[in-house]
Amino acid sequence: MGTILKEYKYTPAKIVHGYSGKSLYINLSDLRIEEKVVTEFMKEKFTGGKGFDLWYLWNAVTPETRWNSPENEIVMSVGPLGGITQYSGTGKTLVASISPLTDIPIDSNAGGYFGPLLKFSGWDAFEIQGKAEKDIIIFIDGNNGLIEIKEAEEYPEDSHVLAEQLTREYAEDEDDMVNVSVVSSGSAAKHSLMGLLNFSFYDPRRKTVRFKQAARGGLGTILRDKKIKALVVKYKGITPNLNNAADLATINKVGVKYHKQMHDLDSKQNKMRQIGTANTVMIMSQYDLLPTRNFQTGGDPEVVKIAPEVFINEWLTQGLHDGCWYGCTMACAKCADHFLLTSGPYAGERVTVDGPEYECVAGLGANLGIFDPQAILEENFYCDTYGIDLISYATTVAFIMECYEREQIGPDHTGGLELRFGNASASLELMHQMSRGEGFGKLAGLGIRKLKKIFVEEFGADADLLEDIGMEVKGLEYAEYAHKESLAQQGGFALATKGPQHDEAWLIFMDMVNKQIPTFEDKANALYYFPMFRTWFGLVGLCKLPWNDIVPSDNYKTSEPAKVPEHVQNYVDIFNAVTGEDIDKDDLILQSERVYQFQRVFSVRMGKGERKDDYPPYRSLGPVSAEEYLSRKELYDKQLRDFQGLDPEKMSLDEKIAKLRAYREDQYEQLMDAVYRRRGWTMNGIPTPERLKEIGMDLPMLLEVVEPKQ
Amino acid sequence: MKVLTHKQELCTGCLDCEVACSQTYFKTSDRTYSAIRIIENNKTYRARKCTQCGECINMCTANAIYRDRNGVVRIDKKKCVGCLGCVGYCSELVMFYADDQEVPFKCIACNVCSKACPTGALEVLVSQVKEI
């Protein structure tokens, strides 16, 4: 099915110590396919994965490039450790592009089989530039060294149908289906700016295609703007050492030790094998961290209805393997099998719902005031198959619902949709509208930053209020953690390079619960180390979860339990064993910082990486409304007394809110100063040439951007 | 279901079983290639070998482990990707691996070791219970 527009034959490069040494470049405007050499310079400065993505992206774009410019690229890379089968979480593909939500580089990562199969097909990285005239599919056959670009007008758009069809089309038989992986988005991606990428893997036990998502920042929107319906890779013959690791014995030893920990400890710790990341929902609510009704509060008595036990006992299949790449014994990719859909174009069909992840239960559940597991799973399914980032969707709709409840917008604006907290059917209808590109759903797909402007300028909403309650920074919507009482996490979100995603830093327990980082310097050190350390997963192709979602039983006895030293050493050992290099844990941070600073300078180059871009909405820092203040009145009153020497008994509620706000905003300013110093930035947030030199990144292209801003 | 059993009171710790196993499957007398391991504890001997419990079947990350028609848990070498998840995950610590082998190995109740046992301590029994 579909006319072949271009065919390209190549000799798949042999992988040596984790690298094939080749990257694939496709330009869809002129159907050009080229091979590039991965240089020693790239390996030294950028390691791989997200590092390679950002390097290629920098060279492809100019400061004027926007998400839909033809020269914008989607770049993906799995990293040198990607595809090893002996350790958990080794199948991550890192994707980068210029985001439609932020206009700066976005990076997002996904499990699923695509990245490892791409590397085993001979490609360390894959750049896609230009735009096709009509919908196309790109197929990479790694066994036969063949790339095809073919027309795809007649293929369906929604991922659960499209990926299933393509997997069956390209596999020779049932046993061959595990060798095919598809990247696709869905019908809502072309009508919104929050489109995601689904990365498939075939589940031979359930005999169905399943997905993990590179969700953040609108990558699916870019995919569809380039008229790509799907990317398909096929590689048959996964064996234990396709990476040709320098020292397989060490990888085996470290891997078996880790698998044993998983066997012995997971059921006593996080139950990742039973419920996945959604295990934390009740804990988050208990600690006032579960964002509820647009981050107004951090929990709700109704949360018991969407507690982990509810999903384990009533919805999620237990006891079957759920890993999204070979060798992952954490197996957290849970799913609800035979789920009956009740709305939308697939109503009445039974489907497999991948998830729910924590972000789904927190975002599509509590943050929308929806405490109904069935509704959450249906929202989860449609977000995925329509290609919508459920984090941006949930945070945006939470904002819309609060605007509706506070009468900043009304039914005249929403086309009659009663977008109040708790209205699951309205949320689902909004999603279906987004898929059809109709009505208020199409508007919602623009994301909070653009909606604020429209609500104020066209609907007459209160600009100050919307600035305070619209949970976005740099144009990206917040991930689903309430964090008013953790100054460090306020920085963790708002100072994150690409926007407020928690994959840079999650410091709430260290900061708020365990009180391990009390001073500004302590917090700044944490906001140096953890973003750097977490960046490293994205350079090498690994998942973060196996690092600290299970910890050795004696971890609490170590000097720095939050770092999980034994697991950090595992990563050092595995990196050396695959690549043959000799790094230590400090070199690991250096590898990360090179790419971290590069990305910050890249953002500056694109016009958004300065102090002014690092401010959160006040809802992140403290109580905006009277109801929020009153919900934790004792705590806030005590803080006025203890930290500001005020007597709350003699103050009006408005005065108390204003004084607390002034204090907290000042605290945040001081945090920014401390973090900027620690990261080697000017007080305006620009990396200094001296710092770039110290880490070996004083490249002329970077100095050209930062020097005029010193 | 076929399962290898071991009578501690008859075992002398001669390790003939281990050699028989590693010789049969890997042509070596190196006991680290044996799917049965005799563990000494104060002149008594315990055998570590697969109980055919099947805990590894559903956890296998490549869907490569299955129970054959005799109830014996086996690894499909064509599907196994050598992740060693089953090695770490086996409660009985009886899934083994060697660095020069692409896939792990385990006792398949083949009778080679029991035939080699000079005291009759080892025996493959056929249980009426289909699955544990």
How would you characterize the overall build of this protein?
The complex is a heterodimer of chains A (710) and B (132). By secondary structure, chain A is of the alpha+beta class. Chain A has 3 domains: 4-234, Aldehyde Ferredoxin Oxidoreductase,  A, domain 1 (4-Layer Sandwich); 266-477, Orthogonal Bundle (Aldehyde Ferredoxin Oxidoreductase Protein, subunit A, domain 2); 487-550 and 583-709, Aldehyde Ferredoxin Oxidoreductase Protein, subunit A, domain 3. Chain A has 29 helices and 17 strands. In chain A, the strands form 4 sheets. In chain A, strands 1-9-8-13-10-11-12 form a 7-stranded mixed beta sheet. A 6-stranded mixed beta sheet of chain A has the order 3-2-7-4-5-6. A two-stranded antiparallel sheet of chain A has the order 14-15. The longest helix of chain A is centred in the C-terminal third of the chain and has 27 residues, at 653-679. Chain B has a single domain (2-126), classed as Alpha-Beta Plaits, CATH 3.30.70. Chain B is built from 4 helices and 6 strands. Chain B has helices at 16-26, 55-59, 85-89, 112-116; strands at residues 2-6, 37-41, 44-48, 65-67, 73-75, 122-126. Chains A and B meet through helix 6 of A and helix 3 of B.
